[in-house]
Design brief:
The structure is a single chain. Strand 1, helix 2 and strand 2 form a beta-alpha-beta unit. It is built from ten helices and 13 strands.
């Protein structure tokens, strides 16, 4: 409960960030060190995010990760070296308990956000559960999702908006979803980079990460967003997953300062 209480009281916002997928130890640690430095300097609560496996890839040949065993070893090394909390995804109920040995927050991917057995398995670990709202779901539908977590006596819940399908190859954020989900009584997270993704536009997903600062500011301006989620990489063009929507690591300092300036003025 210590981390969840910290999240509940984080001002002006908490940050969940990291590369889309664990590529190797060096890149994963490099990003973690830089993000820890940036957030510490600015007094922001920080959770490091990276996936050991990406089960939903556009192409059969796309890199899907190092796997649970190797990925969790890397995340564990980083967690203890930098003393930072870790968030990662699970895709099968059987992954939950092993993942919970390392992760402080277990994330349910958007496409799996209604999978009852998966949600319950995550809840039973007594870790924080971050549920990404499915691209096909209305924000009020998240009520039934949270009920599945609560049924396992776990009230440590985060709700993440990542955009809604709008025709082919595009996502649109309905900003009304923030107050609607906020009414459910849990911290609301805005997934900036995935909301700017253009899914399956070719053999890889596209994106418009240059719009990330604007979207982040718009989300915070609603007064209903508690945390921001973004993916970042030292060289997005060379990333093995979601490179077209990730933010270049060297730009984050300027982006965070712009967000903090906005919050201070409001």
């Amino acid at each position: 409960m210590k981390l969840y209480n910290k999240i509940l009281h984080s001002r002006p916002f908490f940050l969940i960030a990291g590369p889309c997928v664990i590529e190797n130890y060096d890149i994963t640690m490099r990003v973690a060190e830089k993000l820890t430095e940036l957030t510490s300097q600015r007094g922001l609560t920080f959770i490091y995010k990276s996936s050991y496996l990406k089960a939903n890839r556009t192409s059969e040949s796309s890199f899907s990760g190092l796997g649970q065993e190797e990925g969790l070893k890397i995340l564990s090394r980083i967690k203890h070296a930098l003393d930072i909390p870790i968030l990662t995804d699970i895709h099968e109920a059987e992954e939950a308990d092993i993942t919970a040995e390392v992760a402080d927050i277990i994330q349910i991917p958007a496409f799996l956000s209604r999978q009852t057995f998966l949600l319950k398995a995550a809840a039973r670990t007594n870790r924080i559960v971050n549920i990404k709202k499915g691209q096909f779901m209305a924000p009020e539908d998240m009520s039934s999702v949270t009920e599945k977590i609560l049924a396992e006596n776990n009230s440590q819940i985060l709700l993440t908006e990542r955009g809604t399908f709008f025709g082919y190859h595009n996502l649109v954020v309905d900003f009304r979803s923030f107050p609607i989900m906020k009414q459910l009584g849990y911290p609301v997270v805005f997934d900036i980079t995935h909301s700017l993704q253009m899914p399956s536009i070719s053999k890889v997903s596209g994106g418009t990460p240059e719009l990330a600062p604007m979207m982040a500011k718009a989300g915070l301006a609603t007064g209903m967003v508690d945390g921001l989620f973004l993916e970042t990489h030292p060289e997005p063009a060379e990333a093995l997953s979601d490179g077209m929507s990730m933010i270049k690591l060297e730009l984050l300092s300027q982006i965070l300062d712009g967000l903090l300036e906005l919050v201070e003025r409001s």
